[in-house]
Structure formats: C-alpha cells, structure tokens
C-alpha cells in the first residue's frame, strides 16, 4: 500500500512540474513574440581624397644588356616627365624589371612544331603613383600620350580612387542608420497602441560603397568601388526591441 502511495505522489509531483514548465514555455513564447524588428539605413556621399595610377613600358632586343640599357633610358625619361608635371619623387615607384625570352614557333605541313626561333628579350617595368593630389594625377593619366610621343611604348591603366577618412564616415552612417531604425520602431509601436521597450539586439550590416546613382549590385561581403572619384556609402542596422 505504501508503495502505491509513493507512486501516486511521484506522479502528482511530475504533473505539477509539467504544468509549471508548460506555463513558463507559453509565457516565454508570448514574450518573444512581443517584439519589433526593424532595419535602418544610413548613407553618405563623399569625394575620394587619394588616387593611385600605374602604367607599364617595355623594350625588346636580342641582347639582354642592350635591352636593359634602353629600358633604363625610358625609365629616366618617364621619371623626369612626371617630376615636370609636379609629381613628387616619393610618390613615384618603379617595379623590378620583368625579363621574358621571346620565341617564334614554326610548324610543318602536318601542323607539328619543328623549330623554336629565339627572337630576343622582352623587358617590362611598371611605374606606380599614389597621391592625395587627385585632380593632378587624374589629369596626368588622361594626357599620358605625351610620353608615347617621346617614342616610349607605354601602356596606361585607369586610376583607382580611395578615401582615407572612411572610418569617420562609417561611424556617421552607423549613427544615422541606428536613428532611422529606432524612429521606425517607435512609429510601429505607436500605430499598434504600444510603447517601445528595451533594445534586445542590434545587428550591423556590411558597408557598401558604390558610384552615386549607379546600378551596381551590393555583395554579401561588401562592395568597394574604386573606379569612381565620387562615391556613395551605405550601411544597414537591424534593431530588435521589446514592446510594452
């Protein structure tokens, strides 16, 4: 008999505990549902304050030393030209010389390679500029034909544009996005007859930098446009609030 009483008591206790757990689960579920999640957007337009630009030049000759000497003369001509345009010497960087042996292939009537003829050495070097004088270097890159007119085989790349105060811009956008998100949450709570409670969670998106009014796609890891001098940055902030 005592054994039956103990069994009944344990069963009753388990039932009470089960009801308590169920009640807490319902309470917590209702509490988690009583929240507002909103996303705010922060944007800012700015102009790049740093530019990089590069170009390459080359020489071909059967004799390696002659090719190197000719390349050295071109390098001096390019360096002097850049200095004459107001570029500072510490902004000019020449890469190491790349040396390639050139061959001409011959084939027989069956299409088989039967002979490789050495046609000389090809030496290539790159010159790069990094400067905060954006307009000057931008103009220089557009008029690089002056170097070509001096008999130098020169290939110019497009400039790349950067902004050195990006950390400050990011802070301003985060503040703007957070304010935007909070205002949205307050409006939703007001329209539903509730009041905004404590902030439960905040999630920041990645910064996206594109050209203004462009159709560039955003990427999961963030977009960073370097082709445009004018830029527009944006960032999102997702906030989750309790609602009273």
UniProtKB/TrEMBL annotation:
Superkingdom classification of source: Bacteria
Pfam family, any one: SIMPL
Membrane spanning stretches: 6-26
Keywords (A to Z) from UniProt: Membrane, Transmembrane, Transmembrane helix
PANTHER family linked to this entry: SLR1258 PROTEIN (PTHR34387:SF2)
Protein name: SIMPL domain-containing protein
Naturally occurring in which organism (per UniProt): Chryseobacterium ginsengisoli
């Amino acid at each position: 008999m005592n054994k039956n009483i103990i069994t009944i008591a344990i069963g009753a206790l388990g039932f009470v505990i089960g009801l308590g757990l169920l009640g807490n689960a319902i309470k917590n579920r209702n509490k988690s549902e009583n929240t507002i999640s909103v996303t705010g957007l922060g944007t800012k337009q700015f102009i790049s304050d740093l530019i990089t630009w590069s170009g390459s030049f080359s020489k071909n000759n059967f004799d390696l030393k002659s090719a190197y000497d000719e390349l050295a003369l071109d390098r001096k001509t390019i360096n002097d030209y850049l200095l004459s345009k107001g570029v500072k010497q510490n902004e000019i960087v020449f890469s190491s010389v790349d040396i390639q042996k050139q061959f001409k292939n011959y084939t027989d009537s069956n299409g088989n390679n039967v002979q490789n003829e050495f046609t000389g050495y090809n030496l290539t070097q790159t010159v790069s500029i990094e400067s905060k004088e954006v307009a000057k270097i931008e103009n220089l890159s557009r008029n690089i034909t002056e170097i070509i007119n001096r008999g130098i085989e020169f290939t110019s790349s497009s400039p790349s544009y950067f902004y050195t105060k990006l950390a400050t811009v990011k802070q301003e956008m985060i503040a703007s996005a957070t304010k935007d998100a909070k205002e949205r949450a307050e409006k939703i709570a007001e329209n539903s007859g509730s009041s905004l409670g404590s902030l439960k969670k905040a999630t920041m998106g990645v910064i996206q930098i594109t050209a203004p009014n462009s159709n560039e796609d955003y990427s999961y890891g963030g977009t960073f446009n370097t082709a445009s001098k004018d830029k527009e940055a944006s960032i999102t902030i997702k906030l989750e609030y309790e609602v009273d």
